[in-house]
Amino acid sequence: xxxxxxxxxxxxxxxxxxxxxxxxxxxxxxxxxxxxxxxxxxxxxxxxxxxxxxxxxxxxxxxxxxxxxxxxxxxxxxxxxxxxxxxxxxxxxxxxxxxxxxxxxxxxxxxxxxxxxxxxxxxxxxxxxxxxxxxxxxxxxxxxxxxxxxxxxxxxxxxxxxxxxxxxxxxxxxxxxxxxxxxxxxxxxxxxxxxxxx
Length: 198
Prior knowledge:
Blueprint lengths: L1 H19 L6 E2 L9 E2 L7 E4 L2 E5 L7 E5 L6 E12 L2 E6 L5 E5 L12 E2 L12 H4 L6 E8 L2 E6 L2 E7 L9 E5 L5 E12 L1
């Protein structure tokens, strides 16, 4: 009887933890069918949506593009699955502006994978995410979660914390962006894009 009571109490405690967890407050910002809720670039030839997947591929002139959320955020957690496509994938998640980015794929400047690391213009990659080589699936879906709390960025890759960085020049509020790097032949897919305000 005592063990049943203990199990019941633990179940209530666990339920309370789960309800308060940021994961439970995550809201879809991609409906899997259209680009509604996103500021679609003019003359869009790069971004497409369907069957639960947001795809991006460079055009013939290899021009870059960023797909921004229409909504602006202060402190938030953004989570997405991503899957590398063809070419040399150089993508990332922009945090509130195009000057603060978490890299996905190959760094154009370093010519190696820097997934999970922050790229800050003028500083390059001030820190490098740890353990990515062992965690990253180059031929399947990966899950990246990024927390932007004030000027502190924390990144998880496939459930493992890989990086924390304090930015000296983070801005207070702005949209979240997904990047297609210019001067590159590449494609990448995203799905299950969710955001929680914290």
